[in-house]
Amino acid sequence: MPLSFSISDLRQCPAFFDTVADRIWQAWWKESGHPLDYISGRLRDNMNATPIPFALVAHDGGAFLGTASVIASDLAERPQFTPWVAAVWVEPQARGHGIGAALVDRATRDCFALGVRRVYLCARPLRSGYYEGLDWAVVERDIGPHHMNVLIRDRSPPGSD
What we know:
Blueprint: E1 6-9, H1 17-29, H2 36-44, E2 54-60, E3 63-71, E4 84-90, H3 99-113, E5 118-123, H4 125-132, E6 137-143, E7 148-154
Antiparallel strand pairs: 1-2, 2-3, 3-4, 5-7, 6-7
Keywords: Transferase
Organism: Bradyrhizobium canariense
Domain N-acetyltransferase: 8-153
């Protein structure tokens, strides 16, 4: 059964701020000893009027379903690459309904609308296939201590759509 959902900029749906911060913290930062306040502070940058960073939230009315962010840098080993789609999270009960793909697509399209020609994403090898299925291309493998793969998605030239 398909899930009904919308994708909104977190700046337009600030009620989801604490949930987004918690999911990012639980998934990627808690285990390394970073406090939730550290992630909340970083996420506050997404609430400014600047084009990047920004965070998206997938929701069904007031029910949180997932999130994705666009940030300047997501891999310390590749500071020259920017911007990055990062912190893609879908609630376990909402997985398998296209929400992650929709979040990644929206984040990418929003970057292209800002004039960005190439968007980056890093993923562990086990997750890379998912993004490759969404038309991302692996350009580097086994980067850094977490052995991340770097993927890219390029904006189509005008008139090629």
